[in-house]
From TrEMBL:
It comes from the Eukaryota. Keywords: Coiled coil, Plant defense. InterPro entries: Plant_NBS-LRR. This is Uncharacterized protein. It comes from Camellia sinensis (Tea plant). Residues 52-86 form a coiled coil.
Length: 151
């Protein structure tokens, strides 16, 4: 039986245990909880602030993605025209994709027009936020359409 150093309580050093293991475990649990709280509180706030602070970048990203999408659409249009000249059937999915690209282009043009109107007036954070958010969402749609068009 191991020898006890003080009274009735065993000394942790006798068994090779760290006397601070409980506080280390509590710290780890606290950090895990705070990490989760930070993730659910800070990330959405940063995302929302990003719409305001990255307003011009979000609009430029939309322009770039729509330009790439239009280039891809022009290539598909050439192939569709060639297929029609050869009396081939063009699939409905191709027509729908081209219509979606046209719709994205129209929305992007409206967003760009709204940007110029916003920049002419006084600083309106609500309008900048809404327009930047819309541009970001439409950029994601444009990227998805480009990926669908590569298939």
């Amino acid at each position: 039986m191991p020898r006890r150093l003080t009274g009735d309580r065993p000394h942790f050093a006798q068994w090779g245990c760290d006397p601070h293991w409980r506080s280390d475990m509590a710290e780890n649990i606290a950090y895990a909880i705070l990490g989760r709280i930070g993730k659910y509180l800070v990330d959405p706030i940063v995302l929302r602030l990003g719409y305001l602070f990255c307003f011009n970048n979000n609009i430029e990203n939309l322009k770039d993605q729509v330009q790439k999408l239009e280039t891809m659409r022009d290539g598909v249009q050439v192939q569709v025209d060639a297929a029609r000249r050869n009396v081939e059937i063009v699939g409905n999915d191709v027509e729908e994709w081209m219509t979606s690209v046209d719709n994205i282009r129209e929305v992007a043009d409206r967003i760009i027009l709204e940007k110029t109107e916003i920049q002419k007036g006084c600083l309106n954070l609500k309008s900048r936020y809404a327009l930047s958010r819309k541009a970001t969402k439409r950029t994601q749609v444009a990227v998805e359409l480009r990926q669908d068009g590569k298939c």
